[in-house]
Design brief:
With 349 residues, this protein is α/β, with parallel strands linked by helices. The protein has helices spanning 3-15, 34-45, 58-68, 82-90, 105-112, 156-169, 221-233, 240-251, 253-277, 299-308, 335-346; strands at 21-22, 75-78, 95-100, 117-121, 138-144, 172-176, 197-202, 215-219, 290-291, 311-312, 314-315, 326-329.
């Protein structure tokens, strides 16, 4: 069963009234901040509901540029953070290298368009730390830190290594940084380095604005133009009112980042203690609301059996060759009950 079929099954069970503890879903369980809600209402009342420029409204491009210390010409606002990733990978030339475990959309997009790619597989025993020494003839390297599904991140030395590879090999670094503002430790951005990069950001995770479908990319003018052309041909432009709401979000980003990081760090610490007591192995995350525990068995079987017990998780296979892992999202206050059911389910396999 594919991950999409599993999610469809989870949704069907829930629509039929089954009581589920949803640990499979990748969205925060915190509400959209009040200031963002008010800005949304105000924008709609002011009829900001029409097409905008295909690169997004100037005010928001300028605000994102200021946040990252880049020029406005190097920013495009997009219909979700997924869209620019799709656009970039769909137009990839040459070989792309992806680091696993990774968000399953990367290889699915590359396979969809018959793009050449290879992988760097990280290991639980190494705390999922990647080695870039094996990079060979990659014209693009796709990374995601803090990582989905492990929550781990990398440091300045590894970003510098990627920057050097980019400059030495005329390669592009695609850096998916949508969880950066949910980090529990100091993080680095590819935008801090002088190389050819495409940095992806999103309002979905930090501000719980998943339904607003609003993201952005920071890149060279040439790469911005390629994404813009794809947006013109597909979604046309991001939603007008959502962009004005995002302006209000950026006004409070430091406070929200601190609050959401503290909130999910507390959840992480509680979950780590519960999982350890239940005998699950897990690498502590550096950010996000994800953990990627390991079991002695097949996580696909475990996930289906666990669903019968009222808990939904994602098996490790969509993220790479990680059939002994499963991803949980710390988006519930019922983690103690969930881990108890996990333990009981695992012990019956």
């Amino acid at each position: 069963m594919s991950v999409y079929e599993l999610i469809d099954k989870i949704s069907k069970l829930q629509s039929e009234g089954k009581d589920l503890i949803r640990l499979d879903i990748g969205q925060p369980d915190l509400p959209v901040p009040d200031a963002v809600k008010e800005a949304t209402k105000k924008a709609i009342d002011e009829d900001k509901t029409r097409y905008t420029h295909s690169k997004g409204i100037p005010e928001l491009r300028e605000a994102v540029a200021a946040l990252h210390g880049v020029d406005e010409k190097n920013v495009i606002i997009t219909a979700g953070g997924k869209f620019p990733i799709y656009s970039v990978l769909q137009q990839a030339v040459g070989k792309t290298t992806i680091v696993r475990p990774c968000w399953g959309a990367y290889p699915l997009i590359l396979n969809r368009f018959n793009k050449e790619f290879d992988v760097i597989d990280t290991r639980f025993e190494d705390s999922f730390a990647p080695s870039f020494e094996s990079l060979d003839n990659a014209s693009m390297v796709a990374i995601n830190y803090p990582n989905n599904p492990t929550g781990v991140t990398i440091g300045k030395d590894q970003f510098k290594e990627l920057s050097d590879y980019s400059n030495d090999n005329n390669a592009t670094i695609l850096s998916d940084e949508v969880y950066t503002k949910m980090a529990f430790t100091e993080t680095t951005s590819i935008t801090e380095y002088d190389c050819d990069y495409i940095c992806i950001g999103s309002f979905s995770k930090t501000f719980s604005m998943t339904g607003y479908r609003l993201g952005y990319a920071i890149a060279s003018e040439e790469n911005i133009k390629s994404i813009q052309e794809m947006q013109q041909l597909s979604t046309t432009s991001p939603a007008d009112f959502a962009q004005h709401a995002a302006l209000a979000a950026l006004d409070i980003i430091d406070d929200v980042s601190r609050e959401i990081s503290d909130f999910y760090k507390k959840r992480r610490d509680e979950a780590l203690a519960l999982l350890d007591d239940a005998g699950f192995e897990v690498v502590p995350s550096d950010g996000t609301f994800y953990l990627f525990p390991r079991i002695d068995g097949d996580s696909n079987t475990f996930a289906m059996k666990l669903l019968e017990g009222g808990v939904s998780v994602l098996p490790g296979s969509p993220f790479g060759p990680y059939d002994s892992h499963f991803r949980i999202s710390l988006v519930t206050d019922q983690m103690e009950k969930a881990v108890r059911i996990m333990k009981e389910t695992r012990d019956t396999l």
